[in-house]
Write a structure and sequence with these properties.
Layout lengths: L3 H22 L6 H13 L4 H8 L3 H13 L3 E5 L7 E5 L1 H25 L2 H18 L2
Antiparallel strand pairs: 1-2
Length: about 140
């Protein structure tokens, strides 16, 4: 059972991360769920719709809809699976790669400007160390 101090830290962190996430979303041009799919394909390479659904922790039917929307926009393509003729692989198109890089640039650009404008050198160093801790918590 977490201590009251740990529970308080968790609550403050959740609130702050929620606010930051909502603020960064203002820079988005691609819906968050679709951007997450494009990011997964960029990190992992071509994947089946089922693998994408598992990676994003959504139902396969929901992922099939998301992939369909991305295909309509020309951001992903499908190709036959090399070893299983019943499956297909979804992969980023060139337009999808370009859109993802632009989206990341908008998000990171705003955040980098905010970090430079609001934080001291010491706070920036602390934030850099904290990012690794947040990543560790996110993958738990």
């Amino acid at each position: 059972m977490p201590t009251s101090e740990t529970a308080a830290i968790a609550a403050e962190l959740r609130t702050a991360m929620g606010k930051l996430t909502r603020r960064v979303k203002h820079e988005d041009h691609i819906p968050l769920g679709q951007a997450a799919v494009l990011g997964a394909l960029d990190r992992n390479g071509a994947m089946t719709t089922s693998d994408l659904a598992a990676d994003q922790r959504v139902r396969p039917q929901s992922m099939a809809r998301a992939v369909g929307l991305l295909m309509e926009q020309g951001l992903v393509t499908r190709r036959p699976h090399p070893t299983d003729g019943r499956k297909s692989l979804v992969e980023l198109s060139d337009a999808g790669q370009d859109a993802l890089e632009a989206e990341r640039g908008r998000r990171a650009g705003w955040l980098a400007q905010a970090i430079e404008a609001e934080l001291t050198d010491e706070e920036r160093a602390l934030l850099a160390r904290s990012a690794a801790l947040l990543e560790r918590l996110a993958t738990r």
